[in-house]
Amino acid sequence: MDLIYLRMRNRVHVQKNQQVRLKDVAKFIGDDEQVKKIEEEVLLTVTHEDKNIIIIDLVQVIEAIQAIDQSIEIQTFGPSQTIIEVIYEKQKVSFLAFTAVWLLLFLGAGMTIMNFHVDVSMGEVHQKLFTLITGREDRKPLLIQIPYSFGLGIGMILFFNHFFKKRFNEEPSPLEVEMFNYQQDLDQYVIMNENKESNRHLDNR
Amino acid sequence: MITGKVVFGLFIGLASGFAVGAGFVAFVTVLGVIPRLTQLTKTMQFIHYYEAAIIAGVVIGTWLGLQEVKLFWTKWLLVPIGLADGIFNGMLAAALTEVLNVFPILAKRMGIQEKVIYLMMALVLGKIIGSLFQWIYYVDL
User: What was the pLDDT predicted at A164?
Assistant: First the structure.
């Protein structure tokens, strides 16, 4: 009896009409000859009906291995399913759409900060602060307000740890962590909902 | 009678202070600005002093804001104060944007994961220019 260790990969990118072999969805360790035979086994061929996400469950891989040799004993670890993402063509980013979103964010951010300042009477507070420190009155205390405005931007950049391409240290920024979490949530959803092995409808046959 | 009114007044003042103070701390905690600052500067061990700084700032700010104090100091002191004020507000604004979770969805929808930084710079520049526009031009309208 031979023992084979297998670990499912997390995410695999494939193209249309490509053959997916067992070695593409999992890593196998064991008897060299046997592993080679298993690895080359074709699991499926990507067709148009597959849309863009295919979930390969661990049991499908075990099934495929047992079809080759019943006597193999399998030890698994790692994730229990692989997400296969079908890339149809390189997604082209529309420059126009990007510019539109950029302008939307730019103008929106500018307007919301102005609304916020009016809402919390920021101007009055600045006037009062000017009087507090200098003892004089000034309707437009620009000496506070211009550094304040640039400070706003500096604070946001500090928080996100990014100035265009430049970063201040090795740690991932909160934004990158947020992107990662969002991707994880999406993966969790497709694993549960696109996986043929995890949902079964017995109600309306 | 008089002492009754005074005690009642003190009680109301203290109670409203409790509510506002607790709200302020909850707000700052949810947005996670202080952990972010300690992470950037690698000064986790001083976090209690940062707490003290926030409390001292709130108490002194409240007191000065309610008095008619005039200090007659140089006006150039206002530049660092304004800058610090802006950085703190900017961090709050960034944290709020992040909590709202807008960017990941927007980037995913548009398929521009690598260019999120540019979208972020749109927000940053928008805030700076919107704010400058307001103080320099808009207040005169």
Answer: 56
Indicate whether B111 belongs to any domain.
Answer: yes
A to B CB pairs, distance under 8 Å = 229
Q: What is the 3-state secondary structure (H, E, C) of A77-98?
A: ECCCEEEEEEECCCCCCCHHHH
Which chain A residue's Cα is nearest to B67?
Answer: A132
B41 CB within 8 Å of a chain A CB: no
pLDDT tens profile A70-104: 888 888 888 888 888 888 776 677 788 888 888 99
Residue numbers of B between 70 and 129 with CB closer than 8 Å to A: 70-95, 98, 101, 103-108, 110-113, 115-129
Q: CB burial class (10 A; 0-12, 13-18, 19+) of residue B10?
A: exposed
Q: Indicate the DSSP class of residue A167.
A: E
CA A199 to chain CA mean position, Å: 24
Phi, psi dihedrals of residue A199, rounded to the nearest 5°: -120, 135
Q: Is the ipTM of this complex over 0.95?
A: no
Cβ neighbors of B26 (< 8 A, separation 6 or more) are: none
- Number of domains chain B is built from: 1
Find the CB nearest B128 among A101, A108, A153. Answer: A153
Domain that holds residue B113: 72-141
Q: Which of A74-88, A154-168, B18-32, B110-124 has the lowest mean pLDDT?
A: A154-168
- Mean pLDDT over all residues of chain B? 87
Q: Is residue B132 part of a domain?
A: yes
Task: Note whether A143 contacts B79, CB cutoff 8 Å.
Answer: yes
For B94-109, the pLDDT digits (tens) are 888 776 677 777 777 7
Q: Do A152 and B131 touch (CB under 8 A)?
A: yes
Residue-range domain boundaries for chain A: 3-87, 95-190
Instruction: With respect to residue B79, please indicate whether it lies within any of the assigned structural domains.
Output: yes
The minimum CA-CA distance between A122 and chain B, rounded to whole Å, is 10
Q: Please give, rounded to a whole number of angstroms, the shortest distance from the CA of A174 to a CA of chain B.
A: 8
| Distance from the A53 Cα atom to the nearest Cα atom in chain B, whole angstroms | 15
Give domain A3-87's CATH architecture.
Answer: Sandwich (2.60)
